[in-house]
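FW: tagging you since you asked about this chain on Friday. Here's the raw sequence from the shared folder, copied in full. Didn't touch anything.
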Amino acid sequence: MTELFFDNPKTIFGVICIVLNYPLGWFAIIYFIKKAQKTRNKKFYVFGVLLYGFSWFLLIFGIFLCGKEHYALVYNKYFQFISASVIILFIFYEVFLKKHLKFNKKSIDKG
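HL: got it, structure written out here
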């Protein structure tokens, strides 16, 4: 098998779970650790770990639904795209959202 084929809804849902696993896991790590460090609230570490664990569940469940062959094809075809999307989301958070949030905080403090 060299091509992905979506012959039933189970396979489609499995591939979706596999594709969502990677960005969700990295989001959990990056966002919640930064949030916990910023607020000094340890519950964000717990949220991050739970969401990261859920991303692993998605991966295992997706492999179970669509099979190892589809997993290998999805991983080989879309890994670079998924990795790039995670990096782009991180840069977007670091560059644009932080500046925007700081600007709003300054305008609230002055008002």
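FW: DSSP finds two helices and no strands in the chain.
HL: agreed, and Residues 10-110 form one domain.
FW: great, closing this out.
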